[in-house]
Design a protein that fits this description.
alpha/beta; 2 domains; 6 helices
């Protein structure tokens, strides 16, 4: 089985030129640049750039904006768009996670109440000497495990993907933005990091 490498530092590279607005933003959104929706292709690029991110990975945006392009005015709108986009995604996912917890804790409490009712009241109805008492007791034990299993399983095993994605969105929202002004600086950065790998 091939070993999957995880990255400690992830750079998301962006290059500003005359086609940047068309590439980065939804063409049908008439809002000001900083409030526009990001294009689907750009979102896909961002998502695939951080696929190897783990809990302690540092994520940074590297924006190449050469002097000749004259596109420095886009840096601030892109920065605000990225932060807004990932803030909204994080808040939406956080709301889903809160709903998930509330639903499963409610289900767990209801299951406990049902189990307590069956375990407490039904044995009182039937006398200890009757054979039906042991059958009913065994059936109630199995029923108790079945009714409690799903909420317990969800609360133990299903919460981690939520937290992992919320953390990733937070990192993308607050990631540092490094501006690279000339190609030599970009080449030096690539050489430095390819040697380190």
């Amino acid at each position: 089985m091939p070993k999957i490498l995880k990255a400690n530092r992830i750079y998301v590279y962006l290059s500003l030129d005359s086609g940047s607005i068309a590439r980065f933003y939804n063409a049908n959104d008439p809002a000001p640049l900083a409030n526009r929706q990001l294009s689907h292709e750009f979102q896909d690029y961002l998502d695939t750039s951080v696929v190897l991110a783990r809990r302690h990975s540092v994520i940074q945006y590297k924006i190449f904006c050469g002097e000749a392009t004259g596109m420095r005015f886009l840096i601030d709108p892109i920065k605000r768009s990225l932060r807004r986009h990932y803030r909204i995604r994080r808040e939406t996912l956080q709301a889903s996670f809160n709903k998930f917890k509330k639903k499963n804790f409610t289900l767990l409490c209801i299951s406990f109440v049902v189990v307590m009712i069956f375990q407490g009241l039904l044995p009182i109805v039937f006398n200890q000497e009757h054979r039906i008492h042991s059958v009913l007791s065994n059936a109630l034990d199995v029923f108790s495990w079945v009714i409690l299993w799903k909420p317990i399983e969800r609360l133990i095993f299903y919460w981690n993907p939520f937290l992992k994605e919320i953390l990733l969105y937070r990192k993308l929202e607050l990631a540092d933005i490094i501006i690279v002004d000339n190609e030599q600086e970009l080449i030096n950065h690539h050489i430095e990091h390819s040697d380190a790998a």
